[in-house]
Design a protein that fits this description.
With 173 residues, this protein is mainly beta. The chain has helices spanning 32-36, 65-71, 95-98, and strands spanning 15-20, 28-31, 40-48, 54-64, 80-85, 90-94, 104-109, 112-113, 123-125, 138-144.
Length: 173
Amino acid sequence: MHYGPVPRRRPERWRFTVGGASEDGAERVFTFAEVTALPRHDLVADLHCATGWSSVDERWSGVLARDVVELAPPRPDVEHVLVFAEYGYSATVRLEDLVSARTLLATHRDGAELSDERGGPLRLILPHLYSWKGPKWLRGWNYLTEVERGFWEERGYHLRGDAWRGERYSYQE
């Protein structure tokens, strides 16, 4: 499931941007090669959808989000991040969830490069949160000093989206 059409893959043109309330006030832009040159990690995790389905024991590979955060750190007062993807899609994520040891910028699934339909070349995987928090076709994030609701959060979905707590809707906040 995804919002909008499947974009055409162009890793040579793809850029990953980290901005907003960064530690030094600067925006950092990474190429696909720079992101994928970071240490590679494997992760076995479930994928949970707020509509009720789950896909268990998915095998993902990619770069830890916290490795990118270390290269482009936030200001000390940042608690949330607005991750964004193709077509203006965005999701609100707590910084502590983004830097979790299990949060991955995935490039592979089951040993194969992510297909375009699965979110290639880069997809955010946050195993403990519902899948709307981990967009396909990830393009970057902005550090926030005040909460800003993303695409589904603006439409009544939960600000955190913890799958184990059933945090689906904003009235549960």
